[in-house]
Prior knowledge:
By secondary structure, the chain is of the alpha/beta class. It folds into two domains: 7-37 and 260-350, Aspartate Aminotransferase, domain 1 (Alpha-Beta Complex); 40-257, Aspartate Aminotransferase, domain 2 (3-Layer(aba) Sandwich), CATH 3.40.640.10. The chain is 36% helix and 14% strand. The chain has helices at residues 7-11, 40-49, 63-72, 85-97, 113-121, 163-172, 226-236, 246-257, 259-282, 304-313, 337-347; strands spanning 27-29, 80-83, 104-107, 125-128, 147-151, 178-181, 202-207, 220-224, 286-287, 294-298, 316-318, 329-333. The chain is globular and about 55 Å long. Pyridoxal-5'-phosphate binds at residues 85-87, 111, 151, 155, 181, 183, 207, 209, 215, 220.
Amino acid sequence: MSRYWSPVVNQLSPYIPGEQPKIDDLVKLNTNENPYGPSPRVIEAIQSTTDDRLRLYPDPTGLQLRETVANYHSLKPDQIFIGNGSDEVLAHAFFALFRHSQPLLFPDITYSFYPVYCGLYGIDYRTVPLADDFSLRLSDYDTANGGIIFPNPNAPTGRLLPLSEIESLLSRNTDSVVVVDEAYIDFGGESAARLINDFPNLLVVQTLSKSRSLAGLRIGLAMGDSALIEGLIRVKDSFNSYPIDRLALAASVASYKDDTYFRETTQRVIDDRESLNRELSALGFEVIPSSANFIFVRHPSKNADDLAAGLREAGVIVRHFKQPRIEQYLRITVGTAEQNQRLIEALNPLM
Ligand SMILES: *Cc1c(COP(=O)(O)O)cnc(C)c1O
């Protein structure tokens, strides 16, 4: 606390990111990073952009990336917005689209950044409980609201909603914006991007941090009707006109160009998720079916806090959210086959 702070700062409760330990040789399965590096073409693109053009500001609209993404999803560039990580894109979406008199709705168990943005921007919200099996029932959202947001697949559960249910929600909920946060969609789901031309109130948010292995570069995007995108641009240009630097722009365009690498690495993560699921089930864990690059598990007779502590002693870190309903669960990122094996070996003596 400081008496020099603006008073509102005292009221903020910031998001706490998963730790980034400085110790080498840890098996880091706590922040859903991709275990494989980005495509070699991405590294080449960064290298060939690293020259004296860095004295120049980047394209404020990131047109080349917007064209690339538009092409990838059969949309138009004016239906694409890009920002410095999807966290920033989400922040702009909350400010631009969710500050209404009715409350914003989101699940009780979900990405813990959502209530943080509400706190920052003074947005009223109401959480909607997931079912006992952590499935999201979109019929529970049929109530007056100033907006709806949920991740698909949900985080930290990994559960996926079929596109047909999202489509049906959109046809019932036409007076407010529905944001689908697709941070993990490439690990087994179908993007709602193909519904954009039918629903002017749908915003789909994606990130290059997870499936495209670029968490360190900070690139996120939103796709939606051009009027929604214009609202986001107005907020962005009232805040920072150049959120994506030249290297990040070149790298992300190159990532979309190497579709083979993208498909191979995401498929490897999916296959390893299924093996990990089988091995954890064999140890007695209950595993929530996941369509993401992590799995959410609970052991019926072992305390999650003890398990997380035991794993850490063995050099494996996983995420444990000490939050009602999920305090006995661990969220484990799918690593390389070797890392997943080290996880299983570290769990064995704890069983
Ligand atoms: C990781 C994650 C994000 C943020 O991704 P960045 O683009 O790295 O900021 C957004 N939403 C969910 C649900 C995530 O898990």
